[in-house]
Amino acid sequence: MISILRTDMPEFLDVTKRQLQSKDYSEECVLHELLRMQHSKCCYCERKLTDLGKTERWVEHIKPKSEFKNIDGNIEWNQANAWSNLLYSCATCNRKKGETPLIDSKTGEFKLVEPSHPDIEPENHITFFVDGVLIGHKPIPGSIIGKRTVDTLFIGRLELYRAFKKIKAQIDAIFAEIAGAVAVDDIGEFETLVNKVARLTCSKVAHAGFIRVYLKLRIAAFNATDLPQLNEKFGVNFESINVTLASGHGCLT
Ligand SMILES: [Zn+2]
User: Fold this and answer.
1) What's the pLDDT tens digit per position in 134-147?
2) Which residues contact 137 (CB under 8 A, 6 or more apart)?
3) pLDDT higher for 96 or 64?
4) What residues flank ion ligand 1 with Cβ within 5 A?
5) Fewer CB within 10 Å, N or C, the chain?
6) Dist. CA 95 → ligand 1 center (Å)
7) Is 24:12 a contact under the CB 8 Å cutoff?
8) How much is the mean pLDDT over the chain?
9) Are 164 and 128 spatial neighbours (Cβ–Cβ below 8 Å)?
């Protein structure tokens, strides 16, 4: 899970021009802008929504629609379907989340990690473990919403485990190539491979959150064992990637 920078509201949802209706959140132009804002990824699990069928994607209401009922019991669609209240998720995350709101509208308290909220940095609440063949989400110690989000959304997700395993194998393969380039003093190949690694950290890549955490582990291990040799040979290291990883957002391309 990574942070989502909210884009400008689609004109279709401009309440100064018309009253919003119940199904406005599913209008094609709204879905298109949600996909653009989220780099076509599920707001929670970072699977590519564009790899899923249209029935496998759901618009999420950050504060549930039912909480915008007026005194007559009708829903205030101008508020419920406001652009700031919408996110886009895969059907699995949507089902697992169920009725749990991201934010309690009465108290304003966060119930789960809300990736588009400016006060929330998801990477401060949720991380990943890589323990032998076991890979998965885990909360950052002390984060109540991180723990609740992991327990609610990510436990037992075989498709995520398989995706992480595949990514781990790809990264391990690149690091094996890097070791090979260092061994034969091939600085050109080394730089090409470092750039390849850097591009993986981009927010647009599926499962960028997992990739960043796993790369940090690999780079730390690499720096601990191979860095002296690398500096001696090439006078370079992974500093630029570490800076990108620390910033948590950047696309180097
Ligand atoms: Zn998802």
Assistant:
1) 999 999 999 999 99
2) 1, 126, 127, 128, 150, 154, 160
3) 96
4) 42, 44-45, 90, 93
5) C
6) 9
7) yes
8) 89
9) yes
